[in-house]
Amino acid sequence: MRLHRLDLTAFGPFGGTLSVDFDELSAAGLFLLHGPTGAGKTSVLDAVCYALYGAVPGARQNGQGLTLRSDHAAPGTRTEVTLDLTVAGRRLEITRQPPWERAKKRGHGTTVDKAQSWLREYDAAARAWKDLSRSHQEIGEEITQLLGGMSREQFCQVVLLPQGDFARFLRADAEARGRLLGRLFDTQRFTDVEKRLADRRRAAEARVKEGDTALLADAHRMQQVAGDTMELPEPAPGEPGLAEAVLTAAAVARSTAREQLAVADCGRLAAESAHAAAQRHLDDTRELARLQRRFADAQERAARLQERAGAHREQRARMERARKAEAVAPVLALRASADSEHRAAAEAEARARAQLPERFTDAGAAGLAAAARRAAEELGGLESARRAELRLAGLAAERADLDRQERADEEVLTEAESWLAGWEETRAALLARVDSAQQAATRAEQLAERREPAQARLTAAALRDRLAGDLDAAERRALASGERAVAARAHWLDLKEQRLDGIAAELAAGLVAGAPCAVCGATEHPAPARKDAGHVDRAAEEAALAAYRQTEDEHAADQRRLGAVREELAAATAEAGDAPTDQLRAEAAELEEHYARARADASALHPAQEELRRAEQEHRRRTAVQREAAVRLASRVGHRERLDRERAALQDEVTHARGALDSVAARAAQLERQAALLTDAADAARAAEESAERLKAADGHLDEAAFRAGFDTPRAAADALLDDAAHRELQRALDAWQTEEAAVRAVLAEADTASAAQCPPAGLTAAETAARAAAERLRQAASAQDAAARRCAELDRLSERATAAARGLAPLREEYDRVARLAGLTAGTSADNGRRMRLESYVLAARLEQVAAAASVRLHRMSSGRYTLVHSDDRTGRGRSGLGLHVVDAWTGRERDTATLSGGETFFASLALALGLADVVTDEAGGVRLDTLFIDEGFGSLDDQTLDEVLDVLDSLRERDRSVGIVSHVADLRRRIHAQLEVVKDRSGSVVRQRGHRPSGRRGSGEE
After folding, report:
1. Which of 275-284, 330-339, 485-494 has the lowest mean pLDDT?
2. Quick check: helix, strand or coil at residue 121?
3. Are 837 and 880 in contact (CB under 8 A)?
4. Sequence-ordered list of residues with C-beta below 8 angstroms from that of 636, at least 6 positions apart, any chain
5. pLDDT at 157 over 70
6. Per the confidence metrics, is the pTM higher than 0.70?
7. Rg (CA), the chain
């Protein structure tokens, strides 16, 4: 790789545009980059790195590229870096522009332009540049591939040699030297291997301890089940031998439990035999006691029957008399019915005669019937008088109604005349009200036409004020979403770049033995790439791309909302004008007040018109009523005279017919009641006579029936007769006596019962006590057997689970032992690792050995053949070995530590080490040729002779057609090295002055 030209604009401390011609500086092989502290020497090297990789070295990389912009640049100048170089035989030009926050072209605020990149290649045949790509990702992939896969960190260590790091490297102890080498070489994968093995060891150990804990928990459960017969194993969880100890203790516990179960079985069999014998004896005793109680009960029942024998005989005699009396019962019922009818008829006759006048007390049924006929004939003669009396009542009501109507018509005439007297005045007032309301309605219509435009202006003014605030919020949201979109795009491109960096591992994951590689076509894959920690796969890249697109959509939506708010604000301002909202609101309120007052006045129009219409209707009605009332008054005079003549004629007829009573109706009611009472009394007298004859005939039949049944009198037959309830009760008593007598005789005749009665009394209490004791012994024996069986079953179950757990733990413990040996070996803590060297230290030691060999070639020349560097893997004290570095002094023939070198010796030793590192890293990166190198500081510590030797070594790099740029403050170098690039700082920003191998030189602001 050879640098040709570098163009900078507004980058770092350089506020303007400048150019660096590396072809001119490299013509002499050595060139000097110098300038005061803070002028921007390192920024020139940062620009080279940024052009190649899109980022600056190390800690100077910050943010999304916005910090790369110069603070001295003009507001309208965009930051840009252009690098012209040759790499892998191709002439390329790379131009990069970082993100740029600039003022918006329209409106207020700022916006961020996205980063831009261009890659062009020079076509020698056409003698013109041709565009290759404008994609950040494609340019990054192309440059990385051309540089042999060299990362940005490796490039900075190989091309931009940091002398200070290597000086510290020479004097550092093994731990510090390991940290520095870890930054120079990508050994993170070996550290990850150590961490991975340590994590696997801890995980395996945790699984083993977890399994041992579960196994020990089963052992505790078995001890709880087995009791004191089992002892817990001594090893703790994680210690070897725990599983075997638990299984052995479980086997002993199971054997003891089975012995206890056999003893419990024998005890239960003995208890069952004793319980069966006690139960048989209890059953026999209970049967004897039952038979003895049965015989004693039968004797007691027989004695009670003997005591009630007399009463039984009386009940049998009474039942016999009742059967005889049943033949007389129908006649008795007939005589009782006749007697009841006769008493009822006599009582009815007495009640009817009590309501008649005294002159009818001794009259018979025929006399009473004749008197009833005479009263009915007199009642028929009063019908005409009754009609006349009713007509008189109607005439009185009609005359009263006629008087009432006359008075009402007189009142109507008076009221109508009074109302009609003020009609003209009322009509004029109503017409005035209608005219006033019509004028108010006209004013309301005029105000309504002005009201809507005023309200629209007020609404537009309020919308204008609200949208003015929304505009600022929309601008802030659009700016924030734009920044998020830029950040999301940068994150996506970073992930894509990381994925492309590890694309080899992703492609290697799909390789199949014997199948051709999709890239090179080879069927053998001896060393496929492996995914390292933090590898970015397609899913992560696509997720980042989706997030970027989502933020882009959100930003576009915010921009659309911002445009919509602006359009709405312009429309609202055009409609509302410049008048303040409060003024428009006051004018609208005043207009609303006048409009409301006019509408309130106009609302009285319809009621006034309605009231006028009703008044006119009332005028017409009252005029008609007045005429009708006058006509009715005139027609009532003749009608009243006719009523008076008819009333006088009817009054004479009614007075003659009513006699001493108040009315004809009262006389008719008196006669009607008298006829009804006489008729009822006659009927009752006839019924009483007939019932007396039937009662006499019933008494004769009863006397005859009682004599035939064997009774002296009818009363005796009636007393012997029983009702249904008494008959059933008496029959039940007789049946119960017979049943009880038969049962007692049957019991006393039983042979077993009589034989049991001859035996001594049964000892039931003692037999029951013995049976309960035998049952308790059986229950205890069964409980002991069940507990022993459950103990055996639970121990068998827990033993099976412990055995299965032990079998499952075996591969885990084997894995743990294997991983623990590997983790200890890679961590340097294993006894098998005699030098206690970590895996990373082992790899770094191999790298250090290569670097020391490459550095010794140049160190030998720089030190005039005195010094060479050698790698040492000896242990220092109790520390670990592998990263020792010694210097061999040819003058003394002794090997000593590099920390004993002087300042100048340390410088050229570190320079040799840096050059050796560059060779090793270059070889590791695929042997890419690096034709331009930069060396940073340290030359001031050399004497003249050593400085000449160092410069000779650097100058010898020209033999390989290399150029070396030295970054230094040493004034003597300005005399020795003619090609120079000076960085000069100023208040307006830094500039460069360039002096090449030829007399004339160039700088960023023009010729010098």
Report:
1. 330-339
2. strand
3. yes
4. 402, 405, 406
5. no
6. no
7. 69
